[in-house]
Amino acid sequence: MVIDFKQRTTVTLAEVAAAAGVGESTVSRVLRNHGSFSPKARERVLDAVERLGYVPNRIAGTLASAGSRLVAFVIPSLTNIVFPDVLRGAGGVLEENHYQAVFSVTDYDSEREETLVSAMLAWRPTAVMLAGFEHTEGTLKILRASGCRVVELLDTDGTAADLAVGFSNRQAGRASAEFLLRRGYRRLGYVGHDLDLDTRAGKRFTGFCEALNLAGSRLAGREIRAGASSVESGRAGLKQLLERAPGLDAVYFSNDDMALGGYFHCLSNGIAVPADLALFGHNGLDIGQAIPQPLASIRTPRVATGKLAAELVINEAPPQVADLGFELIEGATA
Amino acid sequence: MVIDFKQRTTVTLAEVAAAAGVGESTVSRVLRNHGSFSPKARERVLDAVERLGYVPNRIAGTLASAGSRLVAFVIPSLTNIVFPDVLRGAGGVLEENHYQAVFSVTDYDSEREETLVSAMLAWRPTAVMLAGFEHTEGTLKILRASGCRVVELLDTDGTAADLAVGFSNRQAGRASAEFLLRRGYRRLGYVGHDLDLDTRAGKRFTGFCEALNLAGSRLAGREIRAGASSVESGRAGLKQLLERAPGLDAVYFSNDDMALGGYFHCLSNGIAVPADLALFGHNGLDIGQAIPQPLASIRTPRVATGKLAAELVINEAPPQVADLGFELIEGATA
DNA sequence: GAGATTTTTGGCAGCGCTACCATTTTAGTT
DNA sequence: AACTAAAATGGTAGCGCTGCCAAAAATCTC
Questions:
Q1: Is A104 helix (H, G, I), strand (E, B) or coil?
Q2: What is the pLDDT of residue B66?
Q3: Which N-terminal stretch is annotated as signal sequence (chains A, B) (predicted)?
């Protein structure tokens, strides 16, 4: 196999103009379909573009004009399917409008977030999309100074810097507790992952406890596991919790991944769900609905969040907080 | 809340130079730590940068120099965790080397792939990363003409355009069949998703059938489902298959998502695994190892693929095919 | 201490494009 | 046909940075 390494002089707009026998401006106008030009000119330009294999250079275009049509995502994780879902929702809209998505991953580390946001801004993106409201002072400062739009995703409990799209995790936590109480469960436990890192999970937990308090009840046991959420962590977490706090009749998990782990623990150990123990997750993942007993959970608007976030940015919407709500899935595990 | 909409004149390198009392070149050299400058100059520049809150403009930098330090990913899906995993692997390496990842999603449509690759090239990326070897002629043509590096991911069965990193899906399929045969299963079925779209799954299936033929055996039944893989699709697929082809003793699934669906079907319907029916997946996802009986599967080097792909590009490696292999997980479902 | 090196520095021409403006061409009006 | 309005076009000055080069300053050599 032979690869051509010789410096292929990239075709420029000027060359296209020359080949088409028109001025550079005309080529630019035709290609962006902006301003006026004759059908004849259009044809000659498109013909030359085709013939020379011209690919516009958006780096140059961006520098010359104002907007970069680049949208930066600085997200905590790619392993937690929540974020790919948001990216997916945004991706479609962005693409239709000829925007490009750029991303980096913080691993739930807000210092890293600051570094990454700062690096992103060097590309002069139209907007920066972040998870939630909890950021370092430094992050907020450089973001403000940049003048670019900021969208905080998947959270509405807090103060938005500019735009925010998501739902109230706190209310989701409350709704989960209320549902379990309504079903008659009284000895409730919690299995979660690191709440300091995943502040949205923390808010759900807060909401959950609030609802319990309001009902004159309280958490009968909790197991907080270090690190990110995972099925295995949920499984081990439930095992731990049940050993330490026997007699629970329902457990709330920080999300569906954790809850699935819990479910599998029950399956393996002959714990009847929900007769012996009820399980409640969060996110409403498809897989949770495909297990033998559909998981009781809360369906969150992840794709819709990405979609709306992109739309707001593209339409230059004024600062606002868009609450997309959530939907309780009764399932069969509670 | 008040948002400052006034056109915040972005700080430029020239302003930093003026503030630091040095020339523009010196600022540029200090910031890139490239070329020579005195400690004194360095200090004054960094001080001015800090004071003015200067953020370099990489759009301009890229235009002026050669390389964009942008790596484009054009992937089939974000729902299939395989691709986020690859992105994750690449992301770390890219970030360390001050590269940025840009992506778009084809939804397994090669016409869209061509459009998206073309759009990506407008950003003059250092490399374009694609899934597999199957691309339209048009895609290959514009890629060749662009002169940028191309990495084809997660496949080694075919002809690479430039770099390729992954493993042999065909061999994975063979290994899966050989394992099942070795275990004594004889009436083998297959449940898969759309093979024309996911050509790598198709190659696994081919390899699987080859191994059966070699052993003088043949597939006893198959169910190919339209659309992308999912747990629900696997569940429904296995149900269908068992109705149509009773008496199977093992089923090979196009991937772990599908296999999990199959497992859940068995759980729901009192089919003992593996006594009544053995199940075999592909990818070795964590969740497959967290269900009551760890799923027999093949662990694929997804993160490592992303990592190596990024490294090869950054180190300007010569064209090559890197086979990272795979690992059979015996599990407990076969 | 003069001359030869080496290090540090600033000026400036692009990179490829778009925005703006001035000019030319075409269409419209009476 | 003469004149006006509208449409089409090309020239060119940047966008903010880097790379090159020549000049200036610092260091070394005998």
A1: strand
A2: 75
A3: none
Q: What is the pLDDT of residues A276-299, one digit of tens each?
A: 999 999 999 999 999 999 999 999
In a shared domain, residues B259 and B187: yes
pLDDT per residue over A94-138, tens digit each? 999 999 999 999 999 999 999 999 999 999 999 999 999 999 999
Residue A7 near chain B (CB below 8 Å):
yes
Domain limits at B37? 13-56
What are the tens digits of pLDDT across the range B151-196?
999 999 999 999 999 999 999 999 999 999 999 999 999 999 988 8
A213 to chain B, minimum CA–CA distance in Å? 33
Q: Does some domain include residue B64?
A: no
A85 & A41 share domain: no
- A63 occurs within a structural domain: no
Residues A290 and A314 in one domain: no
Q: Does some domain include residue A8?
A: no
- Residue B141, domain CATH: 3.40.50.2300
Averaged confidence pLDDT in chain B = 94
pLDDT (tens digit per residue) in A165-205: 999 999 999 999 999 999 999 999 999 998 889 999 999 99
Contacts of A165 (CB under 8 A, 6+ apart): A151, A152, A153, A154, A305, A308, A309, A312, A321, A322, A324
Strand D neighbours (CB under 7 Å) are: A 21-26, 29, 35-38, 40-41, 60, 63-64; B 10, 12-14, 24-25, 28, 31-32, 34, 54, 56-57, 60-61, 63-66
Q: What Cα–Cα distance (Å) separates residue A266 from each residue in A86, A240, A254?
A: 31, 13, 17
Task: Establish if A6 belongs to a structural domain.
Answer: no
Strand D nucleotides, any atom under 7 Å from protein beta carbons: they are 7-21
Encode B282-318: b = buried (16+ Cβ within 10 Å), e = exposed.
bbbbebbbbbbbebbbbbbbbbbbbbbbbbbbbeeee
